[in-house]
């Protein structure tokens, strides 16, 4: 893993946006895997600013969804499809046809999972997958003890994850109990994985994922098996990394364009 420690969340967002912009200059029709939640918002805001400034052309870019709640009606404001359309697709000026995502309202959820895995493969695979990390080390909705070879599938959310996500709903009882998520094996097929984490609350999970053993108990530790992973953390999220000083020195010695 390459670990980059930045000053704060806006700096991390700008760095990831620069990497996405560089990818789109090399491959204009790149398939970008996006995550939801508050952590990646600075990325989307910084990338949208570049689009408005005319410094990057995203007209041929495609967007792939990481996960989706099961059972929310189509168009529900907190479905991840709605969130991605609102926070990524619309600000970048993309057509909704450029968007790939699983169908969380399907009658046959398992078939929808399998169909989404096929759709990602038929689209040529994800070029860059942006990831967050849960306080328990989950990525996507691959909760602790998920198979490290898992494919896109339905998962039951833990009490902790439902509590973490309750802030997006009017009450905790409204948070769905099930989700469709890309499996760890599916995630690892992306060509470049970028994990973004900010805040002291993520420090322990980051340390276990980066410096701990590869273990199903910490799903994000599976990223150690991937040949091209970049972990971007702010100072607070880097607080428990034993090699933090080494990571700071390594990144400081590189030109900015080599950061990712």
Question: Quick recap of the structure?
Answer:
With 260 residues, this protein is of the alpha/beta class. It contains 8 helices and 10 strands. The protein has helices at 9-26, 41-53, 80-89, 109-122, 159-165, 184-187, 203-211, 244-252, and strands at residues 2-6, 31-34, 62-65, 67-69, 99-100, 128-131, 153-156, 178-181, 192-197, 229-234.
Explain this structure.
Strand 9 (192-197), helix 7 and strand 10 form a beta-alpha-beta unit. This protein is an alpha/beta fold. The mean pLDDT is 94. The protein has one domain (2-258): 3-Layer(aba) Sandwich (Rossmann fold), CATH 3.40.50.1360. The strands form 2 sheets. Strands 1-10-9-6-2-3-5 form a 7-stranded parallel β-sheet, with helices on both faces. It has helices spanning 9-26, 41-53, 80-89, 109-122, 159-165, 184-187, 203-211, 244-252, and strands spanning 2-6, 31-34, 62-65, 67-69, 99-100, 128-131, 153-156, 178-181, 192-197, 229-234. The radius of gyration is 17 Å and the shape is globular.
